[in-house]
Design goal:
By secondary structure, this protein is mainly α. The chain is 65% helix and 2% strand. Helix 40 runs antiparallel to helix 41. This is RING-type E3 ubiquitin transferase.
Length: 965
């Protein structure tokens, strides 16, 4: 294989060769006829110019005036020739080839190309882009059509042809072998210039051939295969290439801004994409002349193809830092985000590719992340991998780049993408960890965002909470307080050992220089964990084996309750105790600790806290403890100055019912009814009128709209019923009579705000009142005075007689209680009309309501009253059917016993109709047999008594007489 030698020629010789070649090629392109005429004219002009110069040179031999006149005439002639040439019409030129002649001839004379008049050719001749201003170029492109573009008689099919017309290419630039513009021109022995690559491939064909080596163009034999680099031509080609590409950029930019046709815009974008891929200077020029800014506007175009092409071009322009900076100052990012949600995969892929390129710039990371919707859309694309795997992969890459800006990590967490935040929290520096914890605190605290944390994140937070750095501890506790509200997080925290750390913070750790906030935060975290539903019996609190339900733990919790401690700490401790008391075993432990250490007073005092949440929690804890230490709580309430008054005031209804009001009323309903001290204290503080007023308000429709209205109503009625349990107190009895309590409870049996519990409580209260009816019922007055005495007395004191007559008319003798009765003074159920309401309660599905109603009815069948009259009154109200219906529906022992009591009285004292109704019931025998088999002792005895009356059992009390014969 022959080597190819490269010889550099001098710059001057090469330039001369290039010029000569251009002139020969231009001459070959020149035609005859008009062309020759033009050349002849300009030759004459040249000759005239030379004559003028020689005349001026011999000016010493001629007189001054003559010489000056000749020169002036010659100049005028030349100007006339030039003007005549300028008036030649455009139709005289067949093609642009004549422009070469015109330009060449004018350049000989010394005129520039820009000086050629427009009316010579009908269009602006070819010129360099440096002499072509943008407004003229805009005028040029305004006349372009969709498929082809016409200007000055020329028709162009593509924008590059327009650029070549303005910035022409010479034939000398083309390689004769490839017919393409050369990139590395070299000259061979024959003088022909070719592209280096093409000639080398041609020479290689003759390596092993015996044929003589000939020039591929002239076919002349050559002795040498060496080539010489044509540096000058290469420099000229490179300069022309740069000018041509720059002109193409400007033309495409003008086409974008002026054209309204989609085809023209797409062609311009395609041209710009090709140029942007060629070299960086083209991209710099695009930035400079505003292509980048204009592309941002094209992203709102109606055509999806234009949007995709604009994104592809923007992606190319974003390869350098300057381009990304310029793009960041436009609206391209915000418009690209919109395209991420496109239904077309092509647009989505183009948008995500462009965004991926932008995310490589550190300066744009915050701009991208802060654009509304960016992070949310990207995280959605990443999560939905099955919908679009390509977009999902690129979205993940964009998010990975965005993580370099810490603010974006926060935005990702807000969008539910927590992996970056948690990874930086685990693997970052102390400064980064602190920043991530601050982000977590802000997210879960200010925005109340629910976050599922990983095990690793939980371990890091617990470690930070247990560290000696106050800033780390405070930040970690702030986050743990909020995260522990989410139940899955609470269970995770238990698994990583959070409970022992919180217990140590509460019971053991004491830092003198540190505020108590960490203790309060630890208590809150522990309360959240205990309330999450974990098993406290298995949750260890220290290495000694104690658990949350151990006496060690509960003792410390109870002893931490102090009025001088921060409210939030007391609140969290009470929350822990409330959660523990939901289970039987820890409830017994809590009760035992409070009894042994007399710690109930602290809870009672906290009930009066101005902090509503703490007051409510303390009240709820007292309600839970009242069945076990109710009398202790009641005595503490009475002994604490002002507490009864506060209780009465707290249950008074004013405006919308609050949860605290409902809890206070419920506490009064749950404390032991027969605590006389508390009942008397409540009466003295005006509890009765306050309760009755509140009940009327609740019965109003507006008050019932509160979600706490039912609980509040039940508490108020329970507070009334508690007063009926201590009627032996003169103060309580008096206030019950003054406010006609029997009538109030009767109305509550079927009032508009009555629930099952309200009905049950009202029946219980009526039972308590009815027990006193026999004692309070007065015997009937003596027989009226004789008529004569009455007349004399009437004459003596008519006014007194009138008053006594009126009093006599108001006397109402109760047949059941055998005395004078009234609802207010004796609480008689018959006079108050409560019997019908109680019988109606027997049809309730709630067995407790039925039991309470039967208990109240049984007071009318007591041995101290006239049972026959009572049974007659009950029969008139269809009591037999309703009692048997209750017996048929319910099967509890207590209910059976009370039903059998009523049935037995009906059989014993009822009339024939009543007896037939009872004995004719088909369910009664079955219920009696069932009660006799499975009932307790009292129920079995009641069933046996009725069976005996029905002759279903032998009567062992009968006396048999023995007859001897």
């Amino acid at each position: 294989m022959l080597s190819v030698a490269t010889i550099n020629v001098s710059q001057e010789n090469s330039m001369e060769s290039v010029r000569a070649t251009m002139e020969r090629q231009t001459a070959r392109r020149t035609r005859t006829d008009v062309t020759q005429m033009i050349e002849s004219l300009f030759s004459s002009v040249k000759l005239a110019k030379d004559l003028s110069a020689r005349c001026k040179g011999r000016a010493l031999q001629l007189t001054d005036d003559e010489m000056q006149n000749i020169a002036q005439d010659l100049e005028n002639a030349l100007q006339n020739i030039y003007d005549d040439l300028g008036r030649i019409p455009a139709s005289a030129f067949a093609s642009n080839a004549y422009m070469d002649v015109l330009i060449k001839s004018q350049s000989m004379r010394g005129y520039s190309v820009a000086d050629i008049p427009m009316n010579v050719t009908g269009s602006r001749p070819r010129r360099s882009f440096r002499d072509y201003d943008t407004p003229k170029l805009a005028d040029f492109l305004q006349g372009m059509y969709h498929e082809s573009h016409e200007y000055g008689g020329q028709i162009f099919n593509t924008l590059p042809e327009v650029a070549e017309y303005i910035e022409p290419v010479y034939d000398a630039f083309f390689c004769p072998l490839t017919n393409e513009i050369m990139t590395d021109p070299v000259t061979i022995q024959s003088g022909v210039t070719c592209d280096r690559r093409a000639i080398q491939e041609y020479i290689e064909k003759f390596q092993d051939s015996s044929e003589p080596f000939c020039c591929p163009v002239t076919k002349m034999p050559m002795q040498r295969k060496t080539v010489m680099s044509n540096a000058s031509l290469k420099s000229v080609i490179e300069e022309w290439t740069m000018r041509n590409e720059a002109m193409r950029v400007r033309i495409a930019r003008t086409a974008l801004s002026l054209s309204t046709a989609d085809t023209m815009v797409l062609e311009a974008l395609h041209e710009l994409k090709l140029l942007a891929k060629l070299r960086g200077k083209n991209r710099e020029l695009m930035h400079k002349i505003g292509v980048t800014k204009f592309l941002a506007r094209l992203l709102d175009n109606h055509s999806a193809q234009i949007q995709c092409d604009a994104l592809e071009l923007l992606c190319l322009l974003a390869e350098d830092e300057e381009g990304r900076d310029i793009i960041g100052k436009t609206k391209a990012i915000a418009r690209t985000i919109k395209l991420l949600s496109s239904n077309t995969s092509v647009e989505r892929h183009a948008a995500i590719s462009f965004l991926l390129e932008l995310s490589k710039s550190h300066l744009l990371l915050e701009n991208i992340g802060s654009t509304p919707g960016t992070i949310l859309i990207l995280t959605t694309m990443k999560i939905n991998n099955s919908d679009d795997p390509i977009a999902s992969e690129k979205a993940g890459a964009v998010l990975k780049n965005l993580e370099k800006c810490t603010k974006n990590i926060k935005y990702m967490a807000e969008s539910g993408y927590l992996e970056p935040l948690q990874s930086h929290l685990m693997d970052g520096s102390e400064e980064t960890q602190m920043e991530m914890v601050s982000f977590l605190s802000e997210l879960v605290h200010e925005q109340e965002l629910t976050i599922d944390i990983t095990r690793s994140t939980s371990e890091i937070l617990i470690k930070m909470a247990h560290s000696c750095n106050p800033m780390f501890r405070k930040a970690a506790f702030d986050v743990l307080v909020q995260l522990s509200l989410h139940r899955p997080n609470s269970k995770m925290l238990v698994d990583v050992g959070a409970v022992p750390v919180m217990i140590e913070e509460l019971f053991i750790r004491k830092v003198d220089d540190e505020p108590v906030n960490s203790m309060a935060s630890a208590a809150t975290v522990l309360a959240n964990i205990v309330e999450s539903g974990i098993d406290p019996d298995t949750t260890m609190v220290n290495k000694e084996g104690h658990v949350l339900t151990s006496k060690y733990s509960i003792y410390n919790f109870v002893h931490m309750l102090k009025c001088f401690m921060p409210d939030d700490l007391n609140l969290s401790i009470i929350r822990v105790l409330l959660a523990l008391t939901e289970l039987p075993k820890p409830l017994a432990t809590v009760v035992s600790v409070i009894r042994e250490n007399h710690r109930g007073h602290a809870i009672v005092e906290l009930m009066s806290s101005p902090m509503e949440a703490l007051s409510l929690a303390a009240t709820r804890l007292l309600i839970t403890l009242s069945p076990h230490i109710g009398h202790t709580i009641a005595e503490r309430l009475c002994k604490t100055q002002g507490h009864p008054r506060k209780l009465v005031k707290s249950i008074s209804h004013a405006g919308r019912i609050t949860e605290r009001q409902a809890a206070m009323a419920m506490l009064l309903a749950k404390l032991p009814y027969r605590n006389t001290s508390l009942n008397v204290a409540l009466v003295r503080e005006g509890a009765m009128p306050a309760i009755l007023s509140a009940i009327k308000e609740v019965q109003n429709a507006a008050a019932r709209s509160s979600r706490h209205a039912v609980l509040y109503m039940e508490g108020l009625v329970g507070a009334l019923v508690r007063l009926t349990a201590t009627l032996y107190s003169p103060e309580v009895l008096k206030v019950a009579m003054d406010h006609n309590l029997a009538l109030v409870l009767t109305e509550l049996l079927s009032g508009p705000a009555g629930s099952d519990e309200v009905q049950r409580l009202a029946a219980v209260g009526l039972e308590n009142l009815s027990f006193l009816s026999i004692k309070l019922s007065q015997p009937p007055p003596d027989e009226l005075l004789s008529k004569k005495n009455n007349i004399l007395k009437l004459l003596k004191d008519s006014k007194t007689h009138s008053n006594k007559k009126s009093s006599h008319q108001q006397v109402n003798v109760c047949l059941v209680h055998r005395g004078v009765c009234s609802p207010a003074s004796t609480f008689c159920l018959l006079e108050a009309g409560a019997v019908e309401g109680l019988l109606g309660c027997l049809e309730n599905d709630n067995v407790r309501v039925v039991e309470a109603a039967l208990g109240a009815l049984c007071t009318l069948l007591d041995e101290r009253v006239d049972v026959e009259k009572s049974v007659a009154a009950l029969s008139e109200l269809d009591a037999a059917r309703r009692v048997l219906g209750a017996l048929r529906q319910h099967r509890q022992n207590v209910l059976w016993q009370k039903c059998f009591c009523v049935v037995e009285k009906l059989l014993e004292h009822g009339d024939d109709r009543c007896v037939r109704e009872v004995t004719g019931d088909r369910v009664l025998p079955t219920a009696l047999v069932s009660a006799f088999h499975r009932g307790d002792a009292s129920t079995k005895q009641a069933a046996e008594s009725i069976l005996r009356r029905l002759h279903k059992m032998p009567d062992y009390s009968a006396t048999y007489v023995s007859m001897e014969f």
